[in-house]
Write a structure and sequence with these properties.
The complex is a heterodimer of chains A (about 525) and B (about 350).
Chain A: H1 4-10, E1 31-35, H2 40-55, E2 64-69, H3 75-89, H4 97-104, E3 107-111, H5 117-134, E4 140-144, H6 151-160, E5 170-175, H7 182-193, E6 201-204, H8 211-222, E7 235-243, H9 252-258, H10 260-277, H11 286-298, H12 305-311, E8 312-315, E9 317-318, E10 320-322, E11 325-327, E12 345-351, E13 361-367, E14 374-381, E15 400-406, E16 410-418, E17 426-434, H13 435-439, H14 446-456, H15 465-483, E18 492-493, H16 500-508
Parallel strand pairs in A: 1-2, 1-4, 2-3, 4-5, 5-6, 7-13, 9-18
Antiparallel strand pairs in A: 7-14, 8-12, 10-11, 12-13, 14-15, 15-16, 16-17
Chain B: H1 7-24, E1 33-35, E2 39-46, H2 51-61, E3 67-75, E4 82-91, E5 99-110, H3 114-124, E6 131-135, H4 138-142, H5 146-150, E7 155-158, H6 166-176, E8 180-182, H7 183-186, H8 189-198, H9 202-206, E9 211-219, H10 225-240, E10 246-252, E11 260-267, E12 274-282, E13 285-292, E14 295-301, H11 306-314, H12 321-337
Parallel strand pairs in B: 1-5, 2-3, 2-6, 3-5, 6-7, 7-8, 9-10
Antiparallel strand pairs in B: 4-5, 9-11, 11-12, 12-13, 13-14
Helix pairs in contact in B: 1-3, 2-11, 6-12, 10-12
Classes of the chains: A alpha/beta (about 525), B alpha/beta (about 350).
Chain lengths: ~525, ~350
């Protein structure tokens, strides 16, 4: 008689109970092992996201979480700590004690140091026990919620304890930064590849998990009317803005080493640019989409050293008074060198060297202590070829398609309309689609989406090594020039839209920054 | 009460309503109101029903499924009576300056005026968008003129659990040839989803061909439509996995009538699959206790109310192959059991 495991090998397994029209995607049985379980990311993002997946009944009945960190704690103490964190940091969602209590049965804790091989031996024992009692089928997702400097050591420890291979699948998730330049990014990948296959490495970029970023794909490739306009014939320029109103908020030490170009543009914003500008993929399979994104990143024109200062701007905020309160400059923030040359603002003009985008500038900017928190993409179309209505300001108010990523996810199209009344006077009007109010549904957080994808094995929204290298390839020449410059910082006041040089950079191309 | 409705007049009133809304909202700014519409939703209710229940369901649905909502309230009367009023449902999304509004039309009609209704309702439907007809009353469904109204629907919604003869209504739905959404089926989504989730496990999936018995326990003495639906769906799925189980119907007189209280999938082999799902609670909060092999877990289902059921059905404007397959088999099972 066949045993179940023989049948498993012999049959093409497909769940006959699936009903994709009505059921959400489900996560197969698995355990998630979180390194750095006592850290902020686990408390604020990971556990609330996992709880929410439990609340949505997306997790398998025996789903388990194993937290690993240096702090000595029992399972119950860890559960109590996570209970409070989840209740506090859950976004747009009720906290249900009954759901929590069922979810918490699958939460375990193991004290251990990444530098100690015994920790991994203990983890192996713990995961085996969990596999037996929770029926997780040997599937494990390792999540490194630790300092980036510990990624290689953690992967090595996992490999040495034989945890990278097992009865089920084994995957690893790492957070950015993926290196601090091209060489270190390659070094990190090489170390991860000693233990995990590239297909099992999930480099998380939480921007790609946001609904609107995913909606860009739906918008571009699900509609027939926009794609014909999506090229150099009709698009004049693209602006991508990621502005934060806050400062470094106690992360001065980290931020001083990173800066806006590394922290935002190298990863999040170039990924968004790739999503905006990539060619349609033949299918929506993870590697098909990622291939196109990677191809686009490889076609970004690499600046020559003598082009960098004309096409990029580095900025740092100085002190200001905002809303009746004194706001310190970056150099006055705790943990920041008083002579710091770190960029809290970065802007760059990129060009894409392919047929579709040749000559279209992509203006990208990101900064801290700007007037408001907003991330959006503005696609400016060429004006009508002939001004039939005379000087009605249509040059000053071009057609704009705005894809808002945060805080109010949505899409707006600005066009000209006749003003009511006598005469032919035009004025711009906006056609709005607001994601939240149009669907009324709560959007999943980026971490919910990305954790779900990693557990299902869908890497579409994760960054692949060739993408990381291509984006470092575009950014590194700028960093190299900046490192040899002494900027006169601060060069913009907190609460303003960045340094004057950024306006001048666009003016040289005949453009202005929009005010989001 | 008047005896006629002029669709043109209703449409004019709607147009005037939009102008008024535009003027009223935010007079200092030009943000105005945003008109949202994704379908025409026609709801047929008995006049005896509390209209505020229906309108509050409509209001809850609007943000996700903005529609021109037409509620037709019927009274049992031999006199021909028809009247209408129009109004709007607006909401201001948090943090926004612009209201979003949907149109609502209430029509009062007597049974005798049912033949006059289709020509009134047809021009009121929004062009190029689907028309959904939700019939909340078994009596109205049975009226001879009902098919005239149903004819304009791209999708017909009803709740077979409100009908006195389960085999009869299942056969009638199957014979209608229309795209139908049965809320008795929609109520099963959470349980079906739970069963499906369990078999995402390859270990349990591999044991499916050995399932020899499906046991369904329900309140009352006769199986409600939902029991036939669930049995049909499980049997279809199991057969596609190579199993050929028998179904045991287990009435539990102590349980609330019409509710499914336990679902079991059992293998004949002593070490084979033994899955039991116990369902308890009411529409506001249902819980499921899952026992599979040695693993016991607990799941809380979201509330089952008109809003949540319609929300799901309105998301599926076209045909639902899984439902239609289950309906065909459920109808057959019910006829055999009868």
């Amino acid at each position: 008689m066949d045993r179940p495991c023989d049948k498993l090998k012999n049959m093409a397994l497909e769940n006959p109970f699936q009903d994709p029209l009505r059921f959400e995607r489900r996560i197969p049985e698995c355990a998630v092992a979180i390194f750095g379980a006592n850290g902020d990311l686990t408390k604020r993002k990971l556990l609330p996201a996992l709880y929410r997946l439990a609340y949505e009944r997306r997790l398998s009945p025996g789903f388990a979480v194993v937290g690993i960190s240096r702090t000595p704690m029992s399972d119950d103490q860890f559960r109590a700590s996570m209970h409070d964190s989840v209740a506090k940091f859950l976004e747009d969602s009720p906290f249900d004690e009954e759901v929590w209590s069922a979810f918490a049965q699958g939460i375990f804790y193991m004290p251990g140091d990444i530098g100690d091989p015994q920790a991994f031996t203990n983890l192996a024992v713990s995961l085996k026990q969990i596999e037996d009692c929770r029926k997780t089928a040997g599937n494990v997702l390792f999540y490194l919620s630790t300092q980036p400097s510990q990624y290689a050591a953690a992967a090595k420890g996992i490999g040495a304890a034989g945890l990278a291979e097992g009865k089920g699948w084994r995957r690893i998730v790492i957070e950015k930064p993926f290196g601090h330049d091209l060489e270190s990014a390659r070094g990190l990948s090489n170390e991860l590849h000693e233990v995990f296959r590239e297909s099992d490495i999930y480099r998380i970029d939480h921007y790609l998990g946001k609904e609107t970023v995913q909606n860009i794909l739906a918008f571009r490739f699900g509609n027939g009317i926009f794609e014909p306009l999506w090229n150099r014939r009709y698009v004049k320029s693209v602006q991508i803005t990621a502005a934060e109103s806050i400062g470094v908020e106690g992360r001065g030490g980290y931020y001083q080493e990173a800066g806006a170009l590394r922290d935002m543009i190298q990863n999040h914003l170039l990924q968004i640019m790739a999503t905006i500008a990539m060619e349609p993929s033949a299918t929506f399979q993870p590697d098909a989409v990622r291939d196109e994104r990677a191809k686009l990143l490889r076609t970004i024109r690499v600046m020559k050293p003598d082009e960098v200062l004309a096409n990029s701007v580095s900025g740092q905020y100085g002190p200001a008074r905002i809303g009746g309160a004194d706001v310190p400059g970056f150099r006055q923030e705790r943990g920041v060198d008083s002579q710091s040359q770190t960029d809290t603002y970065a802007a760059a003009t990129f060009f894409v060297d392919n047929w579709r985008w040749a000559g279209v500038p992509f203006f990208i900017r990101s900064g801290k202590r700007l007037p408001k928190r907003v991330t959006e993409i503005a696609i400016q179309f060429n004006s009508a070829p002939h001004a039939v209505f005379g000087d009605n300001g249509d040059e000053a108010t071009p057609n704009l398609l705005i894809l808002r990523i945060q805080p109010e996810e949505g899409i707006s199209l600005r066009f000209l309309s006749k003003r009511p009344g006598a005469g032919m006077k035009l004025r711009p009007v906006s056609m709005d689609f607001n994601y939240g109010s149009s669907f009324g549904e709560r959007s999943p957080t980026a971490y919910e989406t990305l954790l779900l994808d990693a557990m299902i094995g869908d890497a579409t929204l994760y960054t692949r090594q060739d993408m990381v290298e291509a984006s470092w390839g575009a950014v590194e020449p700028i960093l190299n020039v900046w490192q040899n410059q002494k900027f006169e910082f601060p060069n913009y006041d907190a609460g303003t839209w960045g340094p004057k040089a950024a306006d001048e950079m666009l003016a040289r191309h005949g453009h202005n920054w929009r005010t989001p | 009460m008047s005896t006629t409705i002029q669709p043109e007049r209703v449409l004019r009133e709607l147009a005037e309503l939009w102008v008024t809304l535009g003027k009223e909202s935010d007079p200092g700014h030009s943000s105005g109101v945003l008109r949202a519409c994704a379908m025409t939703l026609i709801t047929l209710v008995e006049e005896s029903e509390d209209p505020s229940d229906v309108w509050s369901t409509m209001a809850a649905l609007m943000p996700e499924h903005p529609s021109r909502a037409i509620v037709i309230r019927f009274r049992e009367s031999a006199a021909r009576e028809l009247s209408s009023r129009v109004f709007s449902q607006c909401w201001m999304p948090f943090g926004h300056r612009r209201q979003i509004c949907c149109e609502q039309i209430e029509i009062s009609a007597s049974d005798a005026s049912l033949p006059d209704l289709a020509p009134v309702v047809l021009p009121l439907a929004v062009a190029d968008l689907p028309v959904i007809v939700w019939c909340r009353s078994a009596r109205l469904f049975g009226l001879p003129e009902f098919p005239q109204i149903a004819k304009i629907a791209h999708k017909l919604l009803l709740d077979s659990s409100a009908f006195p003869d389960p085999p009869g209504i299942l056969a009638q739905i199957q014979g209608s040839g229309k795209v139908v959404g049965d809320l008795a089926w929609t109520r099963l989504t959470r349980v079906r989803e739970l069963i499906s989730q369990i078999f995402e496990s390859r270990n349990y999936l591999a044991q499916l061909p050995g399932v020899a018995q499906v046991k369904l326990t329900f309140g009352g003495s006769v199986p409600p439509p939902a029991v036939y639906y669930l049995a049909a769906w499980i049997l279809d799925c199991l057969e596609s996995a190579g199993a050929h189980p028998r179904v045991d119907w287990e009435p539990a007189l102590g349980d609330p009538a019409g509710q499914i209280s336990r679902v079991e999938l059992l293998s004949s082999a002593p070490d084979g699959l033994r899955l039991a799902i116990g369902i308890s609670g009411d529409r506001d909060r249902r819980c499921a206790e899952v026992q599979i092999d040695s693993l016991a877990t607990h799941t809380v289902f979201p509330p089952d109310n008109d809003y949540s059921l319609l929300r799901e059905e309105l998301s599926i404007p076209g045909r639902d192959a899984v439902y239609e397959r289950s309906l065909a088999r459920a109808s057959k099972l019910a006829a055999e059991k009868k």
